[in-house]
Amino acid sequence: MRRKHVFTCINCPLGCSLELVEEGGEVIGITGNECEVGRRYAEEEFRDPRRVVTTTVRVRKGVLPMLPVVTTRPIPKSLVREAVKALSGVEVEAPVRDGQVIYRDILGTGVDVVASRRLDRLD
Amino acid sequence: MPKVRKPDLVVIGAGPAGLGAALAAHEAGLRDVMLIERDVELGGILPQCIHDGFGSMVFEETLTGPQYAQRFIDRVERTDIEVKLNTMVLDLRPDRSLTAVNSRDGILEIKPRAVVLAMGCRERTRHQILIPGYRPAGVICAGAAQRDINIEGLMPGRRVVILGSGDIGLIMARRFTLEGAEVEGVYEIMDHPGGLTRNLVQCLHDYDIPLHLSHTVTFIHGRKRVEAVTVSRVDENLKPLPGTERLVPCDTLVLSVGLIPENELSRRAGVALDPVTGGPVVDERMETSVEGIFACGNVMNVFDLVDYVTHTAEMAGRAAAEYVLQGRRRGKVTLRVRPGRNVRFVVPQLLRGDGEGAFFYFRVRRPERAVRARLVTGGVPLAGKKARMVRPPEMVRLKADPEMLAEAVSRGDLGVEVVPEVEGAEGHG
Amino acid sequence: MKAGRKTRPRGKLDPRLPTSARAVVVGAGIIGCAIAREITRYLPDVVVLDKENDVACGASKANNAEVHSGIGEDAGTLKQKLNVRGNRMYDEFVAGLGVDFRRQGLLIVVTPRSVPPEVAEKMGPEELDELLRVKIPEGIVAYGKAAGIEGLRILNREEVLAREPNVTPEAVSGVFDPHYGLVCPYKLTIALAEHAVINGARVILNTEVTGIRVEDGEVRGVITNRGEIATGLVINAAGVFADEVAEMAGAGGFRIHPRKGATLLFDRQVTSEYVRSSVALFRMPGMKKERSKGGGAMPTVEGNLQLGPTAVEVEDKYDTSISAEEIEEIFERFHYLLPNFPKEAVISAFSGVRAPTYEEDFVIEASERVRGFVNVAGIQSPGLASAPAIVEMVMGFLHELGIPREPRPDFDPIRPTTPRFAELDDRERDSLIRKDPRWGNIVCRCEYVTEAEVLAAIHSLVPATDMDGVKRRTRTGMGRCQGGFCGHRVAAILARELGIPVTEVTKSGGGSPLYLGENKEFLQPGRSGHA
């Protein structure tokens, strides 16, 4: 059965409305794009949409109570909320180095979560 | 007695603009640079902008806000730039002298040879847009909510309505949702969204948060804490349409209704301000109407890309250093840069024509497809670039080399305009 | 020996209800606190009760700060009599309190709009001009004289425009009232409350009066939601609720019909050049649709310009909402008087509920039916201006009811105040910082309020216990950014000083928390919080 999916392209201010038609997971056609980048974007968003995840984790003994963290690579979009939830229980102790690994292999994606900044200890 | 200090340069504000300007001045050879910041750490607004998307031009990678700031903070710490945190500038005068205060030094009288204004901007508030209703706890601007969540570790709300679809509002829609709050919807008074498409997709669509265009909040309910808001559709004049009211229960109203360059100190110093940008009128070296006072970043006009903030900061810092080290005195203003077709404003607003090239930043008035954005003089195109689409939320940058500016000066006219791109036409620039 | 200072613990009001008091004042607004303060000149055992989380939470914090001369009141009313007298007593009233009172003067402007159209239509142009240029201003001066107000000055058109160049060019003449003054009404209320506390009074908040015990036609006690206070003297200064409190005692006979009023506040940097003193449009009597004054453009003592107030009858005594219609009305009204006014310079809006009776006059009486019960009700405008005279009148009743007539020798005339960083010069500022570094920590950047001042507000005699309390005492959050910068800083200081989690900090007491949880709490229910 043929299905239609709509995506808004984010690659340039045009924001083309992209229509992707697929059947059983096989892409039949893509329309609405004004360029090749848009076509590839529609395919990616259909097959394997991924997002960089940013959130905060709690810090002990730091100059600030929260540490911003970021995934080193985008992870599957469907796992974002769960990833943030998994990180919500994490607590680290200062000092923290910029880029320090805070959580390895989030939800089995093979992607690490690292500190987005340096955070000094409160002395 | 208050202490008196006489550095070569004072940079007011240590966000991306101030950090960039201080570093550029230092790199240009200025050694006695003081960087004053009222907050507890460097970075300005960046430490709370934990999302990514920063630096694609400057660093050719997309960083988070804190990562972007950290790059500059690390560099500053390797220099002898004097950093004063928790320090507020109380007054700035036309002779460039200023008064600052902090707990450790007390009152500081500072008489620098040059000043760079990098104070950024503040948020437009509920009363400035005159939302009727009660005045309970739970009405908060998006940036303040962002600080609460990302820096202080506190949740300012649990059932949230967001007014304004600019980038800050969209980012916070996602942030609240990921932290377990419920965002009922984003309401936007215009008939088009205010932020980047990327944010519409990754902050609203991804989370099924509805965006209601042509809507605004017309009443805030709740005496002690927000209990609900009334939203209404608006007409083409942005006036609420009677009969379209809907009550939305919530405990928090988040406002993302505009940023205002923070120019109180600029006013005190007698710096001429541009009513359209809300910031100082500057020339191509980022110098204001007061000699020796330069401006960059959001205090000059609100930018959408931090990369542009960094660029203007570098220009301002370098110019300030040249002013101090070479005693560079500027020539008289030769031109007022003219915003032309579909251009709302341009910075810099003035051209002195000192023999070097320049960059021009501008915003369009309305979205337009298939255009050429270009500099023109007396009707003759100088430099430009094609764009599939231009939109008001996205600033455009144009570069002019020295020859182009010389031509503009000799013709006595320099304009920035956006014109339909004719297929196949080569153009002159 | 100065009573109160050594024995009263600073910074935490004793919440315990005393079992008895010589006098109980119901309502900690400007009138209640002023009366309490005056009583403490004679004896210390006064209790002031209020159901809100701070003093001045009713109309006392939501009026326009005007100390009128009395020129606007109807002849023969108690309002007029007490207004004229109160205005004269004001300098003495505020002495020793550390509160700013300025006789800035009021410019009453006469334009063709001062005359109702149906009257103007019947006149020839010369007659109308004579009316506007001469008869009306002379009439105002004569009216003032009859009320005991001297010194009103007639201005011609040139003089009006020289004083206030931004006033409508339709101005024909004006009258300048030099007695008119401005005072911050909530700061004054707080100061009066503190002055009373220094001299032995107790201010007990979050306590609602639910009944008055009367036996044999005499007051015996006040019943509250937290217990009972035995007393023979009750002063009913309960604002919009004064009719209800009077009914509890059987000493009523008047009804309060609430009437709200909204005011818009503007940035002082922009408006200080626009208007010099207060400006109002004169309107011939009978033109007003409602009985409250027509309002005007009034700077506050701080210099922020106010436009307003509106006057809207409401059912709900708590209805301090501001409607879109009121906002529009304000702009329309003042667009005429100040044509090029920078409307976009608005920074805030507030609203309060007035407490008028149907007779539209003050009800100040020692009840004949219930001995020991004194009504001080129906205090709408000019309540602020009349306050000293109201107190004088009430004291007359109280002395007859047994309050001694000899002042106490140990009455402390001075209420201690904290300096304001914003008003000091740099040398004074530097000197304070050297003694206490917290004077160098700016918390509110718009109004230049330091941590030291916030702490003083939280530890003062009538301390701030919520964000609005700090705001009223220090001005945090009253500037252009409306708390965007200082909000979380003040909340953190309140939490620290009150020893509570920051999630328990409120805007204005119970039911108004700033934060609804800590981070991650909504994702991990049950988790108690970070270290």
Brief summary of the model shown:
Chain A has 123 residues and is an alpha+beta fold. Chain A has 2 helices and 10 strands. The chains are: A alpha+beta (123), B alpha/beta (429), C alpha+beta (531).
3D architecture notes:
The complex is a heterotrimer of chains A (123), B (429) and C (531). Chain A is an alpha+beta fold and 123 residues long. Chain A folds into two domains: 46 residues, no CATH class; 62 residues, CPE0013-like (CPE0013-like fold). Chain A has two helices and ten strands, in the order βββαββββαβββ. In chain A, the strands form three sheets. Chain A has a five-stranded mixed beta sheet with strand order 8-5-6-10-9, with no helix packed on it. In chain A, strands 1-2-3 form a three-stranded antiparallel beta sheet, with helices on one face. The mean pLDDT of chain A is 94. By secondary structure, chain B is an alpha/beta fold. Chain B has three domains: 191 residues, FAD/NAD(P)-binding domain, CATH 3.50.50; 133 residues, 3-Layer(bba) Sandwich (FAD/NAD(P)-binding domain); 83 residues. Chain B contains eight helices and 31 strands. In chain B, the strands form nine sheets. Chain B has a five-stranded parallel beta sheet with strand order 6-3-2-10-22, covered by helices on one side. A five-stranded parallel beta sheet of chain B has the order 12-20-14-15-16. Chain B has a four-stranded mixed beta sheet with strand order 1-9-8-7. Chain B is globular and about 65 Å long. The termini of chain B are far apart. A six-stranded mixed beta sheet of chain C has the order 9-2-1-13-21-20, with helices on both faces. The two termini of chain C are 48 Å apart. Chain C folds into three domains: 237 residues, FAD/NAD(P)-binding domain (3-Layer(bba) Sandwich), CATH 3.50.50; 178 residues, 2-Layer Sandwich (D-Amino Acid Oxidase, Chain A, domain 2); 84 residues, Arc Repressor Mutant, subunit A (Orthogonal Bundle), CATH 1.10.10. Chain C is built from 14 helices and 24 strands. Chains in contact: A-B, A-C, B-C. At the B-C interface, strand 8, strand 9, helix 3 and strand 13 of B face helix 9, strand 19, helix 11, helix 14 and strand 24 of C.
